[in-house]
Design a protein that fits this description.
- This protein has about 200 residues and is mainly β.
- The chain has one domain.
- The chain is built from three helices and eight strands.
- Strands 1-2-3-4-5-6-7-8 form an eight-stranded antiparallel β-barrel.
- The chain starts with a helix and ends with a helix.
Length: about 200
């Protein structure tokens, strides 16, 4: 299992480069500040701390928020997911109301990756009022930027597309009310692989 996790981590370094660029452009916070005290012989991820001062030992994505929609649509997302990559556990959900139309879905997480203040989570829809969506894998991305969070979702282009594990669109929508919290954690790379 450790070999699989390391392989997933290495393969996703390239895939998460956009998130890394975004995280370097954002102001650093105590929970997402890079650890610059590492030595030249190893590469170590940041060692973030929770608000209580305890080290974060796994990535987490929590919180609830309503998206900013100027046309009266009410779109809300909620997350309670933790665990690295395909060891992620937890659920997330969304609701979407527009006039008389209303859709909702609950998803069981199957992957979570973080990069600084950004996170990508995927999961399978386990319960919904839209029967044709049940059993499909969808992805959501979050940019935790204080009270100016952003969110993106894999069905932004097509509702019919399933996504691979740990994949979504960039966080292209703005939060109106509420808050998401990303706790970044990434396993250290072995010295021999870090030198490549």
């Amino acid at each position: 299992m450790a070999t699989k996790i390391r392989s997933v981590a290495l393969a996703l370094i390239t895939a998460t480069s956009a998130a890394a660029l975004l995280s370097t452009a954002a102001p650093a916070t105590a929970d997402n500040r890079p650890d610059t005290a590492g030595t030249a012989s190893t590469v170590s991820p940041a060692v973030p701390f929770s608000a209580a001062g305890r080290p974060v030992t796994e990535p987490r994505l929590t919180g609830s928020a309503q998206l900013l929609r100027l046309d009266g649509q009410d779109v809300r997302f909620s997350f309670d997911v933790r665990g690295f990559a395909t060891d992620a556990k937890g659920t997330f959900s969304f609701t979407h109301r527009h006039g008389e139309q209303y859709a909702w879905a609950k998803l069981e997480a199957d992957c979570l990756l973080t990069g600084g203040p950004t996170a990508v989570v995927t999961g399978f829809i386990t319960d919904t009022n839209v029967p044709e969506l049940k059993g499909k894998r969808k992805g959501v991305s979050v940019y935790d930027h204080g009270r100016s969070d952003r969110l993106g979702y894999s069905w932004g282009i097509s509702h019919d597309v399933d996504v691979p594990e740990c994949m979504s669109m960039p966080p292209f929508e703005t939060v109106r009310t509420g808050n998401f919290t990303v706790k970044h954690w990434f396993p250290p790379l072995p010295t021999s692989q870090a030198a490549r």
